[in-house]
Every structure is written in C-alpha cells, then in structure tokens.
Amino acid sequence: MVAKILDGTRVAARIRGEAGQIVRDVTARKGRPKLAGVLVGGAPAAKAYAASQQKQCELVGIDYQLCELPDCTTAKDLTARLGELNADPTVTGIIVQLPLPEGIDPAKVQLCIDPYKDVEGVNPVNIGMVFEGEPIIAPCTALAVMALVRESRVQIEGAEAVVVGHSRIVGKPVALMLVNELATVTTCHIATRDLAGHTRRAEILVVAVGKPALITADMVKPGAVVIDVGINRIRETGPDGEPRRRIVGDVDFEAVSQVAGFISPVPGGVGSVTTAMLLRNTAEAARQQIDAGRA
Which has the closest alpha carbon to 233: 244, 220, 221? Predict the structure, then answer.
C-alpha cells in the first residue's frame, strides 16, 4: 500500500478562497478587516514571519499594521499596547509575534488579547470554548489538522483516533475537536508507557511532538490517516558530501507512507494550511465582531 498524499498546498488554496469571500462580505458591511502584528525586538525569524503575514493578508484584501516595540519593552508596556489595539475599532485582529524577550510570559500576554480579536485562537477563553464545541476563534494549527483529516474523507464519527502530544494549542484542542465529532480519542505524551501499542490502533493518527522520525512504519495501522504536525530541522550530508539542513516531521515519511492510507507531508502539509487558517480566522474575527455588535 502506498499512502495518498494530503496536499496542504491545495487545501490552503481553498481556505484562502473562503477567507477572501468572508473579507468581501465584511468589507461590504463595515470596511476592510485589519490585522495588527505586534513585534517586540528585532528577532530575524519573527520579522520574516511578520513580512510573510503582510503579504498573505494583501492577497485576500486584509489590511496589515505592524506594531514594532523595542527590545527593552516590559510585560507592562506590551500589555498596555495590546489594550490600545483591543480598544481600536479599526483593528479587527491581533497577533503577537514569537519569540518574546526573556521575562515576558507568552501565555499571560495572550490572555490580554480580546478573544474576538485573537486570530490565532490562543487566548485561554478561546481554547476553553473548544471544550464546549463553540469557540469564538479556534487555534489555527488545530483547525489545519482537522481540515486535513476531512480532506481524507475518512468517517470521523466512531473512528479510533490517537493524538501524540498534548500541547495547549495543538494536541489538546485537536483531541477535543475529534471528541466533538464523536471519535474515540486517546492522547499520548511523554509519560505514555507503550506508545506503539496505542498508535497501532489508530485509524486517525495525529503527531505533534517535535521529535524527528518518532513514528515508524511498525507503529502505524495499515490504511490509517496520518497527520504530521512536527517541524524539525535536521543536519545531514547531501549527495555532494556537503552538510545541509532539511525540514522533516515527526513521522518517518518514506517508511510510513508505505503503510498508511493517507499521510500529510512536511513541508507542504499542516504548515501550509495553518497559514491559510490564520487568514480565515482573521476574516472570521471581523465577521464575528460585526455579528456580535462589537464593530
């Protein structure tokens, strides 16, 4: 058996189209949505990500505002700036770029973002509402995972699902979303004694740990849907004998693709869809604000 590839690029294109339609509806009702990116310090990776966000927003008609704060910014300063953005009616979405300077707790910062403007879905209110099955805005990566599961067209209701990893913004919300769709869900983590014993039962296997090749072919049930959330940069020797870096997931892709029924690649899988979900969440946040009388 050779697994069918769950093409994140194609799914992302569809989601961007959905985002664009929501943006057009919002613009006709109240004006263009605006995403405010908050960047503390000059970390090159964070700057590059902000530039990418701006480019993606422009593609679907979302305005983008980058709020740059110096390295010396304190948690109090950042909280105050977020308060200003929360109160600004022209700003319909807020995203804080990570990493933050040492001494600033990202979880506490995210708590300060208005849940209706929390386009990443990381405010504890939004994560908590996943429990109820009715989040205002759900976490982008968890939504991306579910989009790829649905792309396989596997029946989620009644399926045996295993989520490896229990992070606050991926593993736990994915597990809850699967439960909400009536899958039978097992969550595995660092204290799980027999990981392979669990994963071999999974008809839907989601892996979000950050450990290259954690899941091998002998750990996967034949025909399973395998969603790889991991992004790991490894060093290896290229064909020319020179060292190089390569991005891989948490799943041994080549081996597992010979066993699974469906598999998401890395790169080109969950990451691509997550970026598109950020756009849809941004558009949806603006619509939610209008519908709730907050815009």
Answer: 244
Q: DSSP 3-state assignment of 6?
A: coil
E strand map for the chain: 4-5, 34-40, 63-69, 93-96, 160-164, 184-188, 204-207, 225-228, 232-237, 243-248, 262-263
Burial annotation 246-263 (CB, 10 A radius, 16+ → b, else e): eebbbbbbebbbebbbbb
Average confidence (pLDDT) per 10 residues, the chain, 295 residues? 94 97 97 97 88 95 97 95 97 94 91 96 92 91 98 98 96 97 97 98 98 97 98 86 90 98 97 96 97 87
For the chain, the domains span 29-125, 139-273
CA distances from 125 to 111, 113, 131, 224 (A): 8, 10, 10, 33
Q: Is CATH 3.40.50.10860 the right assignment for the domain spanning 29-125?
A: yes
Per-residue H/E/C for 111-179? HCCCCCCECCCCCHHHHHHHHHCCCCCCCHHHHHHHHHHHHCCCCCCCCEEEEECCCCCCHHHHHHHHH
**Looking at the domain covering 139-273, what would its CATH class be?**
alpha beta
Within 10 angstroms of residue 146's Cβ, the number of other Cβ atoms is: 22
Within its chain, how far is the Cα of 109 from the centroid? 18
pTM of the model: 0.94
Backbone angles phi, psi at 187, to 5 degrees: -105, 125
